[in-house]
Amino acid sequence: QVELVESGGGSVQAGGSLRLSCVGSRRTFNSYTMGWFRQAPGQERQFVASINWSGGETNYADSREGRFTISRDNAKNTVYLQMNSLKPEDTAVYYCAAGLNVQRMGVSSPRSYDYWGQGTQVTVSS
User: Fold this and answer.
1) CA-to-CA distance for 106 and 124, rounded, in angstroms?
2) Rounded to whole angstroms, how far apart are CA atoms 101 and 44?
């Protein structure tokens, strides 16, 4: 079992920045691919970004590449999502997730991930 706790959400104006953090509970945290997803009211959960166990491979949803940066610090059992130039359409609950075997269904599929955090709200006003 891996417990994930997100933090760093909040309310910002359009054009602002936020950095989300997700801390994992297990020492084997560095074995997991980590992903960030988001879900707005009435919408399906959407892939935002992922990072492999070493941090050497990252993937982004096309619409967010360039504004968002995912990174991880395995010594701190933490994955980050730096979000810049935020837009009102980025408003959502953001979730981090951990998965061991993501290759079969792909890093962008929620079904690839075994553990999820409780989410953190991001609200961007125009």
Assistant:
1) 29
2) 22
